[in-house]
Structure formats: structure tokens, C-alpha cells
Amino acid sequence: MHELLAAQRDSFMAALPEPLALRKDRLKRAIAMVRDSATRFCDALSEDFGHRSPEQTMVTDIAGSIGPLQHALKHVDRWARRDRRGVQFPLGLLGARAWVEYQPKGVVGVIAPWNFPVNLVMAPLAGIFAAGNRAMVKTSEFTPATAALFEEIVGKYFDPAELVFVSGGPEVGKAFAELPFDHLLFTGATGIGRHILHAAADNLTPVTLELGGKSPVIVGDSADLAQVGQRVAMGKMLNAGQICLAPDYVLVPSAKEEGLIDSLKAAASAMYPTLLGNPDYTSVVNDRHYQRLNAWIDDARAKGARIEVVNPAGEDFTATNSRKMPLHIVRDATDDMIVMQEEIFGPVLPVRRYDGIDNAIAEVNRRDRPLGLYYFGRDEGERRRVLDRTISGGVTLDDVVFHVSMEDLPFGGVGPSGMGAYHGRDGFVTFSHAKSVFKQSRLDVAKLAGLKPPYGAATRKTVARQIGG
């Protein structure tokens, strides 16, 4: 890996400055790499998960990758323009100028997760390539078929000095994070993110962490419960809930709890009238995660929760080796249950009652700041109060998850849910060095302002103007 990094950095330094035409060409080649192998990626992902809907993969990982790359291709000329800045009086009048130039950083490391293992490689590459960088990508060991496909096809589209893929387990991941990259992007669990930050610290590598957390849904008193049920159920059951932005728990006014539960059940049943043989419904990725989810459900049940399983066809999940799991609604969830302590990452949805919007806000605020927050309701004052009184990476109003798909919005967390952001122009800026440039006037400004010894009246006049009074 050190040799790969050295080769990329040597190539980068020899090529500076990276012309926009080459950046656009890389974006086009990245689009072609995904588009040409779209069907193979669908097959690989289904193999990795045990079953994954090919239509879902086409939406989330194929179209979801090509979209950001096309967006960058369309806008990179504008993003890369120098940004003119003002200069203090009277330097501008004397001919001085200031601006910011956006330079590529060099080689960017990307550590990708398993839940969207194409999208969460290719979407960051949109900003990385638009900014003029090279990239090394560490794929997840939980999706080996997808990782192997990347390694097989990349050479058709990219020289190793531009883009290379590395696979392997935790030891490889640790060594990868310790490489002296010019920037490192990690997407994954908060606990692993802490280790990544420690690994990067010795090289003072700038790090963007896209983590997770318990993203809450606040159901306002004015919310349309049918709409809430449909949209929360879709966001929770997409990819079997294995999404960093999946709604992790729901806060609902006490008087509306029964209506919400009924709406969630109806929506889940309409989307997935059967589960085991349903090609639209994805499996839990591996046995370890499947066992973890069942253990957390058992923990909640043992501590007094009511578990409502949405199984409209009455299928027997114990008589199959499938890791498909129906939606489990956890009612009467309490803080001592693991489902209210850890990010769930599966089709398990705790529901908690509240009385008064300030109590719902307090419930959110006593937990770590989440990656996403979702509010449903028509009360503008209440909506504004939720936005003003909570802090989260991003917000979707009257739906869940969708803010992540807006390329002109920065995507990132805050506190334990992450640091830094990318997508669109924000990604271009993240993976660029904003270099300040100041061009001085032809006049001897330092002498005119009394900044050169011997100091005197001009110096005192300049200082008085600067400090006021």
C-alpha cells in the first residue's frame, strides 16, 4: 500500500496543475465504469447480502453513483474558478488584489462501508476527481464479491496512479488508515471512526468522518399519520434498515401512538405483502448482524417491551436459513434497552410516546447528536422550534433520509455522528486546498503606512485607524 501511495503521489506531483479537461475525463470514466458493469454490480451485491433487490441496487448504488458524478461533471468549471476576495482599505485603491485558488490536495484515501458499497465509493469520487486528486479505496470485507468486481474492472478505466482498490480485513483497514494520505474519508460506525481518527493523527492527515447514530423521527401533533407511516416504513425497510440515516426511533404524541402503529403496519404490509420470497426485500448482510438484531429484540422483550412483528403473510422465519427479517416495532421502549442505546442498523423500530414538543426535543438533546433528524407536521411554529432547538447533521422535513440525495446540500454529521461534509460543491471544497493569494500594489505600501522603521507619525496614524477610539 505504501508503494501504491508513493506511485500516486509521484504521478500527482509530476502532473501539477491537474487540468480541468483531465478531471472531467476521470469523471466520465468513473461514470462508464459503473454504468458498463451495472448488472454485474447488482449480482455481486445480491451475492454479498444473501439477497438484495437488483432494482434497489440500481436506484441506490448505480443511479445513486452516476448522479453525483454527472453533477460534478456539469459544475466543476464553476467550482474551480478563483474566488476573488476583498482587501483592506486603502490597499484595493492602490492596486492590491486578493483571491482564493482551489488546488487538489494530492492522494485521498477512502474507507468504504458495506451497506452501499458502490455508492459510498463512487459518490465521494465525484468530489475527489473534480478537485483534481488521485484516490486509493479500501473496500469492506463484508462485501467481498463487490470488492473483487471493483478490483477486476478498474484497470480498464483507470491507471493505478489515478485510482486503485485495496481489500482485506481489519488489519488491512488499520494499516490503510495509518498511511500518510493528503485527506482521508471514512464512512462507517462511530466506534470505528474513533480508531480511524487515532490512526490518522500521527500523520496529521485531515479526516472526514461520516458516521451514524440514532436518527430520530419526531411526529408533530399536526402530522398526517398515514403519510408518516408510509414514509417512515419505506425509509426503515429500504436495504432492510441497513442505512446510516435510517429512522432509528420514533417520538409520537401519546394520543397518536395507536394511529401511528396502525399506519406503520399498513404501509409495511402494502410494500412487502410477503418477505421470504419477495425479490424486493433485502436480507441482513451476515449472520453476525442477524444474530445481533435478534439478541437486541430479545433484550427489549425481556425488559418489558411489546414487540409487534409486521408479518402480513404469516411466514415462518424459523424454518429457513434466510436472513430476511420482518419489521419489528418495539413499543414501550426504555433507556435500559440496547435498542435505545445503540444505532440499530436493521428493521427494528422503537416507538416512544411524548407529551408536548419540548419533551420530544429534550429526548433528542439528551442523546448524542444524530446524523439525521426527521420532523413531520404542518405547524410552522413547532417545526421552527424543532429546527432551532436540536442539532443534527442534516434534516428532512415531512419525510426521512432524502436530504442525503440532494447534491447541492452538504452531507455530514456533527459530534459523534461525524465531522466534515461532502457532496456537490461542498465535496469539491473538502477535497481541495483553498490557497490564499495576495498580490501587493507596485507602491511601497509598508513605507506609506509607516510599517517600516524608523516609526513615526505615519505609524501612529495607521495604528489609530486600525484600533479605533
TrEMBL record:
Entry protein name: Aldehyde dehydrogenase
Cited Gene3D superfamilies: Aldehyde Dehydrogenase, Chain A, domain 1 (3.40.605.10), Aldehyde Dehydrogenase, Chain A, domain 2 (3.40.309.10)
Stored CDD domains: ALDH_CALDH_CalB (cd07133)
GO MF assignments: aldehyde dehydrogenase (NAD+) activity
GO CC annotations, alphabetized: cytoplasm
Family: Belongs to the aldehyde dehydrogenase family.
Coiled coil: none
Signal peptide from the UniProt entry: none
Tree of life domain: Bacteria
Active site: 210, 244
GO biological process: aldehyde metabolic process
Alphabetical list of PROSITE patterns matching this protein: ALDEHYDE_DEHYDR_GLU
Organism: Sphingomonas lycopersici
Keywords: NAD, Oxidoreductase
Record domain Aldehyde dehydrogenase: where: 19-437
Entries under InterPro entries matching the protein: Ald_DH/histidinol_DH, Ald_DH_C, Ald_DH_CS_GLU, Ald_DH_N, Aldehyde_DH_dom, Aldehyde_DH_NAD(P)
